[in-house]
């Protein structure tokens, strides 16, 4: 039930992982064009890179659900999160030669995570109150999204470049990776009624 879910540590683990992941991806997406321009890429190059980045995310969204049929979704979640974190390290370093490896890693990682968040909510809590539970977790994801868009740009304005902003994202994704080890299906208590 929803009331039981919000009392469980797993609910809060998923919620905070959602805050940090959505903060990160919206911070990256909303500032990627300016970050590439900061590295002296042309307007055309930066625009095309953003479009290709979205295409990579789309491919990852389509494939991650199928891969979750082969690999345990919780293990896949960790793999996708690690991939996104490594990609963000490349963006944080800010070297032009690392741009495409970084964007591919972030795109593949995020695309998979986006699909897996909803899948994990269902496999963790079941379907009884999936709407309420998913809606509550989406609220936290929305908070992270708004903060990521604003704070990534604000830090860049204050420091003069995106280095600090992207390294903060690396830190938040690293915390989310640690949190991911606490995300696992809830096992019903042994005294729960059993259907006959």
């Amino acid at each position: 039930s929803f009331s039981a879910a919000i009392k469980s540590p797993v609910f809060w683990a998923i919620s905070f992982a959602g805050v940090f992941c959505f903060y990160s991806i919206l911070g990256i997406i909303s500032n990627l064009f300016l970050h590439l321009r900061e590295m002296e890429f042309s307007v055309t190059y930066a625009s095309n890179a953003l479009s290709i980045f979205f295409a990579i995310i789309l491919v990852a969204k389509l494939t991650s659900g199928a891969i979750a049929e082969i690999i345990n979704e919780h293990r896949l979640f960790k793999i996708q999160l690690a991939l996104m974190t490594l990609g963000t390290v490349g963006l944080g370093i800010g070297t032009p030669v690392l741009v495409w490896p970084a964007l591919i890693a972030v795109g593949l990682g995020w695309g998979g995570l986006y699909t897996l968040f909803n899948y994990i909510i269902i496999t963790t809590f079941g379907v009884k109150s999936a709407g309420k539970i998913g809606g509550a977790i989406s609220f936290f994801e929305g908070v992270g999204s708004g903060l990521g868009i604003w704070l990534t740009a604000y830090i860049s304005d204050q420091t003069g470049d995106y280095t600090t902003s992207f390294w903060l994202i690396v830190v938040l994704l690293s915390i989310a990776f640690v949190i991911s080890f606490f995300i696992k299906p809830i096992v019903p208590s042994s005294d729960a009624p059993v259907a006959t």
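DSSP finds seven helices and no strands in the chain. Confidence is low (pLDDT under 50) at residues 190-196.
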